[in-house]
Amino acid sequence: METTFIMIKPDGVQRGLIGDIISRFEKKGFYLKAMKLITVERSFAEKHYADLSSKPFFGGLVEYIVSGPVVAMVWEGKGVVATGRLMIGATKPSESVPGSIRGDYAVEVGRNVIHGSDSVGSAQKEIALWFPEGLSEWRSEMHPWIYE
Length: 148
Ligand code: DAT
Ligand code: MG
What we know:
single chain; Alpha-Beta Plaits; four-stranded antiparallel β-sheet; 4 strands; binds 2'-deoxyadenosine-5'-diphosphate; binds magnesium ion; Nucleoside_diP_kinase; Nucleoside_diP_kinase_AS; ATP-binding; kinase; transferase
């Protein structure tokens, strides 16, 4: 099954949105395979966002990510990369539909609460970066009630 990397950014942690966000992924039928609360170094945030290093907002983005603890997670499920992105909503909260996480909780693109991998390939890279220790191997007993 597919896995994706999801991170609740420092604003999401500060604003008490951890439980709600985890609950959305749980209730959907995805499985939590790894999780940690961690404050990352600048060099680590730069590595995570390396593809955006030429963008004018890169400096501010890195400042924001290192500004407090984040919740890093791996979620597993059928189509979890694409569906996770839909649950998160568009990058700019002004374009994120109500019902999505950013649509419900964010106003500014630079305070958009949550990160999710944008492809299966970037998910693999991000999971390797954030969880070199590996994932938990469990499978939910609910599996046949969620998947055909
Ligand atoms: P996403 O987080 O939806 O995958 P992205 O990978 O294009 O979006 O950009 C990563 C983060 O960078 C995004 O969540 C917020 C910030 N960002 C993106 N575009 C921006 C912009 N035009 N101005 C300011 N910050 C931006
Ligand atoms: Mg992205």
